[in-house]
Amino acid sequence: MNLIAAPFANGLLLSSALLSSLLILHAAVRIPWFALSQERITGWFGASVFVLGFWQMKASIQPGLSFHLLGASALTMIAGRDKALLGLAAVLAADTAYGHADWGSFGLAWLIVAFIPVTLTQYLFTWAQRTLPANYFIYIFVNCFAASTLTMWSVGLLTCGLLAASGAYPLDFLMSEQLPYYFLMGWPEGFSCGIYMSLLVIWRPQWVSTFDDAFYLTRKN
User: Fold this and answer.
1) How does pLDDT run across 5-44, given as a tens digit for each residue?
2) Are the C-beta atoms of residues 188 and 69 closer than 8 Å to each other?
3) How far apart are CA 213 and CA 221, in angstroms?
4) % of the chain beyond a pLDDT of 90
5) Is the dihedral of CA 84, 88, 94, 95 positive or negative?
6) pLDDT band for position 64 (50/70/90)?
7) How far is CA 186 from the centre of its chain?
8) Which segments cross the bilayer (predicted)?
9) CA 211: distance to chain centroid?
10) What CA–CA distance (Å, rounded) separates 135 from 200?
11) Tens of pLDDT along 128-179?
12) Residues in Cβ contact with 29 at an 8 Å cutoff, skipping those fewer than 6 apart
């Protein structure tokens, strides 16, 4: 997930950098900065720092091939889509500044590890609220556990596809030595997100922008 720029075409890197810049700017404009409460800011900043710590605990195989927990779904559930996109941009920038990735591939990496997981998590959250009963366990198991597991698998599939298409690594090597680990990582990703969100909505629900006691605990279906 820590992409290096060398294997990818300059056109792809430039277009992804432009697209990611526009999406980050759009997210920043949509945030009601002056209406943010102290609790929401604390949850957002604290979760972003926590995700950055997660990213430092990684295992590397080859250049551009490394594994770490994403935390994108948890950050989305805590801060909301737009703030999660900005938070992950800051996390990726700090991780790149530490020398774990290339600045040239920043835009492409952000689209893979931030935009796609956050968008998928937000979509599942919206779908669950519209179609499933307003239940605490649905919030934890669908919006947290299932969503974070699916995001890890999606990132793995997309990363392997891009590396294979760019010729960085042979497809059979990626299928045997890279992709299976993403599917294995999906389970700890889902478990950690489910556990942390369970604790937060019990002890610090004011930090979680997507959880509403009136909706999940008192609403009748």
Assistant:
1) 878 889 999 999 999 999 999 999 999 999 999 999 999 9
2) yes
3) 15
4) 67
5) positive
6) low
7) 12
8) 84-101, 107-125, 137-169, 181-203
9) 18
10) 16
11) 999 998 888 999 999 999 999 999 999 999 999 998 998 888 889 888 888 8
12) none
Two tokens at 113?
A: 């590890």
Q: How does DSSP assign 73-113, residue by residue?
A: HHHHHHH-HHHHHHHHHHHHHHHHHTTSS-GGGHHHHHIII
Q: What is the dihedral of CA 174, 176, 181, 187, to 10 degrees?
A: 120
* 116-131 vs 72-79: helix crossing angle, rounded to 10: 60
Place of tokens 């997660």: 54
Write out the two tokens for 211.
Answer: 């959880």
Beta strands in 43-191 (DSSP E): 59-62, 65-67
State the pairing for strand pair 59-62/65-67: antiparallel
Best CA proximity match to 12, nearest among 163, 174, 115, 151 = 163
Is 115 in contact with 76 (CB distance < 8 Å)?
no
Residues, the chain: 221
